[in-house]
Amino acid sequence: MVDFSFRYQEFEVLLLFIMRMGGFVYAAPFFSNQGVPQQFKIGLSVFLGYLTYYATMPHQYLQYTTLIEFSILVLKEVIVGILIGWAANICISIVFFAGRIVDMDIGFSMVNAMDPTTRENATITGFYYQYAVLLILLISGMHRYVLEAIVESYSLVPLGGVVFHLDKMYDALLHYLAEYVNIGFRICMPIFTVILVVNVVLGILAKVAPQMNMFAVGMQIKILVGLGVMVLTTIMLPYVADFIYTQTKIMVVSMVEAMIP
């Protein structure tokens, strides 16, 4: 006879697994996009939480006395999932920064649009870099890495035992901001350099032939040269995705280490 008995304490543990997974799916890249249906997010959170629950048996039961204490435990698990997913998601914004720099150089900075998937204002080049890099990251298996990271977090950050080390979180964010500028400029450096040379040439021509309207001519030249260099540097996008992938791993590891008790 099959025994379908289920302890109440086990249900509490399962609920905490689902809460951490729900916070992760809400904030992680690929899964948190607005194009992903809410029903899928909820179902994925329950499914991943259920699988992780059975993969980590036996469990240690929670110690609490009041409903408020249990609510705090649930809130902590949600925050853990959000922080891990958010640490992976913010690294994607580096390509938006690079796109804004490129568009300021070639003259597309005034053309802003709302990205319906992330609800962020971005320029044309930012959209191009974002979707190209996301596609490469998806092909390279980054979605599997972030799922493995949230599953491994249960062994490093046990249920109900999270401790938020704010100093380590600040250090991780400062390191990210430094790499944000560094990687962003490395992405747009070819176009930035070529447009700088074009601006120098246009400045010399403005002095040599002042009767020419360099403002009207320069706009078309910078757009043509900028788009041409962007097409030629498309081969560099896998290396850009590798930079983003490496920074994502560093941020996720740093955020998990900042919550280890």
Structure in words:
With 261 residues, this protein is mainly α. It has one domain (8-257). It is built from nine helices and two strands, in the order H-H-H-H-E-E-H-H-H-H-H. Strands 1-2 form a two-stranded antiparallel sheet.
Quick overview of this protein structure:
Helices cover 72% and strands 2% of the residues. The chain has 261 residues and is mainly alpha-helical.
Number of domains: 1
Instruction: Please tell me the overall pLDDT.
Output: 80
Q: What Rg, in angstroms, do the CA atoms define?
A: 24 Å
Largest sheet: 2 strands, antiparallel
Give the spatial strand order of the biggest sheet: 1-2
What's the helix-strand series? HHHHEEHHHHH
Shape annotation: elongated
Distance between the termini: 42 Å
Number of strands: 2
The proportion of residues in beta strands is under 5%
Helix/strand structural class: mainly alpha
Please work out how many helical segments DSSP would assign: 9
